[in-house]
């Protein structure tokens, strides 16, 4: 009886693992690695944190954020254990653009309120903040999630977009303190093709632009 039950359990487990490989969740995948994304290997094999050379949407000008900080905080901010980030320390005083992750199970309080497990990013005045997903397969994928402005105290909101290479797939104008969701039910990707999730400071006003992103990509067929 025990052997008879064992095989279905093994098959079910393998099926769950295979299903998980067909779904990529940004927060879950990054927290599973809990380490720096190097230039040669991304988190879960697909996620990259980047910046642009200007405010133009041109993948040829994108580069990896060069600096990883285990204790993340701009000058004057409280440094919190479990809040790590990738950023460009040399670019400007605020060390932006930056992509940050709350690895803890608790809400954290820095210059803004950061929910548990939140992935959030911030552009510079003259550079885009970019989260990239490099497709590991040829497929049709569904993209769901949303953007939430975490700092309603100042600023003029942000612009966001989802690009496939240099092609814009979705776009939004997020008001200060607002939230917007997105759902792209059928996006064709090939192995090695990159999707870019982009945060723009909106007319160069990057103040209070800390924005949380919720993002899941799932294979449809």
Rg, alpha carbons: 18 Å
Number of domains: 1
Strand residue content:
35-45%
Q: Fill in the CATH topology.
A: Jelly Rolls
Low-confidence stretches: 5-20
Main sheet makeup:
8 strands, antiparallel
> Tally the helices: what do you get?
2
Output mean pLDDT. 86
Query: What is the CATH class?
Result: Mainly Beta
Structural class: mainly beta
Q: What overall geometry do the principal axes of the alpha carbons give?
A: globular
What is the CA-CA span between the terminal residues? 37 Å
Please tally the β strands and state the result: 16
CATH 2nd-level architecture: Sandwich
- Helicity level: 10-25%
Order of helices and strands: HEHEEEEEEEEEEEEEEE
Summarize the structure.
The protein is mainly beta and 221 residues long. It is built from two helices and 16 strands.
Folded structure, characterized:
The chain contains two helices and 16 strands. The chain is mainly beta. It has a single domain, classed as Jelly Rolls, CATH 2.60.120. β12 and β13 form a beta hairpin. The radius of gyration is 18 Å and the shape is globular. About 7% of the residues have low confidence.
């Amino acid at each position: 009886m025990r052997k008879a039950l064992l095989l279905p359990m093994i098959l079910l487990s393998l099926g769950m693992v295979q299903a998980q490989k067909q779904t990529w969740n940004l927060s879950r995948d990054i927290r599973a690695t809990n380490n720096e994304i190097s230039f040669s290997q991304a988190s879960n094999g697909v996620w990259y944190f980047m910046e642009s050379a200007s405010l133009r949407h041109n993948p040829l000008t994108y580069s990896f954020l060069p600096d990883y900080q285990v204790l993340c905080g701009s000058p004057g901010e409280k440094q919190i254990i479990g809040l790590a980030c990738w950023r460009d320390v040399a670019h400007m005083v605020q060390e932006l653009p930056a992509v940050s992750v709350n690895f803890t199970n608790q809400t954290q309080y820095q210059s803004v309120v950061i929910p548990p497990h939140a992935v959030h990013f911030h552009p510079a005045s003259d550079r885009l903040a970019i989260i990239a997903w490099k497709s590991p397969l040829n497929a049709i994928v569904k993209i769901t999630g949303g953007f939430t402005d975490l700092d309603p105290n100042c600023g003029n909101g942000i612009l966001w977009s989802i690009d496939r290479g240099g092609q814009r797939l979705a776009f939004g104008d997020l008001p200060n303190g607002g939230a917007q969701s997105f759902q792209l039910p059928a996006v064709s990707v090939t192995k090695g093709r990159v999707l870019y999730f982009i945060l723009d400071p909106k007319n160069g006003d990057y103040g209070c632009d800390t924005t949380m992103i919720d993002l899941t990509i799932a294979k449809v067929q």
